[in-house]
Amino acid sequence: AKDVTTEPELLLDRSRAITVQGGDKGGRAVVRIVGKYFPDAARALGGRAEEALKAHLRKRVLPEVGERDFVVVYMHSLVDRGDNFPGLGAIRAAYECMPAAARERLRAVYFVHPGIQARLFFATFGRFLFSSGLYEKLRYMSRLEYLWAHIDKGELEVPECARRHDDELERRPLMDYGIEAADRCCMFDAASMDTPASLRSLRCS
Fold it and tell me: How much is the pTM?
């Protein structure tokens, strides 16, 4: 039977929240996830969000990656407490639904602009929420310049929200340590568990 693309999958595809980009310095494919792009898609998808995420992964992302090793770049830049995007339940479900061979080919997850609260949250609860195979691949990147040690600039499209947040961190470095408040409330707050409906979490506590 023909594998038909549903409306929720099309909405997620058009949001460009999850895209396959170039390669890293080791020749591995790069899957980019932009948290800031998810709010509109999440509102439109409603309770179908997790299902659409899994289908998008199965039909679009994994076929484009093919048999190559790959890394994930997750950009947490300027994610607001009122914004919705794949929460921990959805991310975990997406990882667990991948074939074992694909999980094995995932080499690293680069978490860009995590903030101190997200770091503390994952240090405390990460091992309980994620399988060891996923948790141990997590790498924090507080600045884009650290990401460029692993991926050439021309291989990754950096969204404007990430550029703006990186510039702000350069001007106000204490934000990295949660000492200086950002202009937007809870811009880089910790993750929290969400409902099975997902695409809604990593919110402020």
Answer: 0.78
Q: With CA atoms as reference, report the closest residue to 60 among 100, 23, 6, 104.
A: 6
Q: What CA–CA distance (Å, rounded) separates 163 from 105?
A: 29
Does 98 reside within a domain?
yes
Enter the tokens of residue 84. 């919705």
Where does 28-186 have alpha helices with state H? Answer: 38-45, 49-56, 62-65, 88-97, 100-105, 115-129, 132-135, 144-147, 160-171
- Full residue range of the structural domain in which residue 90 is found: 7-173
In a domain, 191, yes or no: no
For residue 105, the domain's CATH number is: 3.40.525.10
Pairing of strands 70-75, 29-34: parallel
Positive or negative: CA dihedral 100, 101, 107, 111: negative
Rg (CA), the chain: 16
Q: pLDDT digit string (tens) for 94-141?
A: 788 888 999 999 999 999 988 777 777 777 877 777 777 888 898 999
Which of 130, 52, 38, 128 is closest to 92 using CA atoms? Answer: 130
CA distance 115 to 6: 36
pLDDT, mean of residues 2-7 = 61
Query: Residue 44, class by beta-carbon neighbours within 10 Å (0-12 exposed, 13-18 middle, 19+ buried)?
Result: middle
Q: Report how far residue 203's alpha carbon sits from residue 186's, in angstroms, rounded to the nearest whole number.
A: 8
Please report whether residue 144 resides in a domain: yes
